[in-house]
# Entry
Amino acid sequence: MNTLLSWPDDPFALVPKPAFAPTARRALEFAGGEVELCWMPERAQRSGKPGAGRPPFLASPADRILREETVLERGAIAITPNKFPFSDRHLVLWQKRPIREAERELLDAVVSLAEKVEGTAIVNSIGAAASIPRAHAHVLGERLGFLPRFERATVGSTFGLEPGGARLSRLSGLPIECLAIDGPFADRIALTHGLLQVRMTTAFNLIGEGETLYLIPRSATEIPAPHFPQALGAAEIWGRWCFHDQQAFENATAESLTQAFQIAGYAPGAAG
# Structure
């Protein structure tokens, strides 16, 4: 863990308890494991949510959120609640400087905090389920254990990057390209940040669970309709599928989730 950042013993106590109360939930066997499906119609009310009707430019609410809702600051990072949570313990970490993508300091912060609370770190980019064009990340106070169950296969290259003590592999059996980065904290963060810099895809998702970071390069398709009729993000890859629409929630199958992954991402092994 990164010991340069000091966090409260219970950072979730800084914010009101999130109103995470799905209208309905169900479990589904998928890719040899189990994922959770949640019908959450309130998330359709998010301002600027991804969709066909979203215009190419919108005024960002990030400055207002940081001004009115910040509960803790650590250097270049601010922490706020999440108005539309997908966990019952949920924080949002923001890069205070107005940039679009996570820099090393945000990765340091979100992963170290997630490890402290034995939870999960999640990062979405614009084009992969983010609704605000300011670098931010989520810390959830739980782990689902869906991704850690997959076996690993060797990736043949580190793409010109020096891995140090970090190890790069891919998940076998998941129907989307998902790279796993393991190793000491600093080396793991450095390799992940380096991979984000040399990637050739516009969009990505990043998940930190346990002492592994999972990096998912995304295709140009953000909404893999009709198989998943909304933006597919890191929450779904993590194992919690958040549906806005009741019919889509009720009709979802392992095959439709597989098709959604295949459209929204790259085929396993695409990274070489």
Notes: The mean pLDDT is 94. The chain is about 20% helix and 25% strand.
